Amino acid sequence: MLNAIQLENILFLDIETVPESENFSDLDQDFQELFAHKTQYQRKEEFTPEEFYERAGIWAEFGKIVCISVGYFTQKQGERQFRVTTFQGDEERLLIEFSNLINNHFSLPQHLMCGHNVKEFDFPFIARRMLIHGIKIPAKLNLMGKKPWEVPHLDTLELWKFGDYKHFTSLKLLTKVLGVPSPKDDIDGSEVANVFYKENDIDRIATYCEKDVIAVAQIILKLRFQKLLSDDEILKV
Questions:
Q1: Beta bridge partners of residue 112, listed in sequence order
Q2: Structural domain boundaries enclosing 148
Q3: Tens digits of per-residue pLDDT, 48-65?
Q4: How far from 101 is each of 26, 98, 200, CA to CA, in Å?
Q5: What own/partner pairs with CB < 8 Å and gap ≥ 24 does 131-139 have?
Q6: Does 41 fall in a domain?
Q7: Is pTM, for the whole model, over 0.90?
Q8: The domain spanning residue 228 has which CATH number?
Q9: How many independent structural domains does the chain possess?
Q10: Rounded distance between C-alpha atoms, residue 75 and residue 225, angstroms
Q11: Tell me: the pLDDT tens digits for 78-125?
Q12: Which of 45, 64, 150, 218 is least surrounded by CB atoms within 10 angstroms?
């Protein structure tokens, strides 16, 4: 089935998220209480809500998206090319720009969206943040009423599970075992909030995000028994 899909019909993506406010004390009283209640099970007695707030970026109710990186295959003069770009900065603006990309270029029935663990994290997070900002969710992301086989998404984590639904494999581990160049050579997800709020280095985060997109594309090539991308086939636009 995977080999039957045209690579040019796949939009690869990854997102990076941070707490919506830099500090727990920046939240109003209601949000502080709601965060405490939301995280009670994860925190147990080990952390106060304020100590746990650095992880707020994993929940769409308390976090925000600071960049969405995308990549897609094209053919240029018969040569394979993988183009990568990033929407970054103001969350509402980047969500609108991302929505426009999907609606204008990846909205046809044959188009698919692909990432690692995107069904559990990226896609729901994007959809929820769009609703919070009052942005209409593109059909490719709006799964309400769709049957499982109608969902136009590929998830490399799901592909690697082979039906073993309790199994989780990180992107870093999957690239390692498949012999794909690792994207994790600078920061990791736990450092994104600090780089965003303390270093104000969104470009560093975008570069990290783009490397994940490239890694996912490489995994798809590996699963299709195709040659991996070389550096000169990757173009940042």
A1: 10
A2: 2-20+62-236
A3: 999 999 999 999 999 999
A4: 33, 5, 26
A5: 132/60, 133/91, 133/92, 133/95, 135/92, 135/95, 135/96, 135/99, 136/99, 137/99, 138/99, 138/102, 138/103, 138/107, 139/107
A6: no
A7: yes
A8: 3.30.420.10
A9: 1
A10: 19
A11: 899 999 999 999 999 999 999 999 999 999 999 999 999 999 999 999
A12: 45
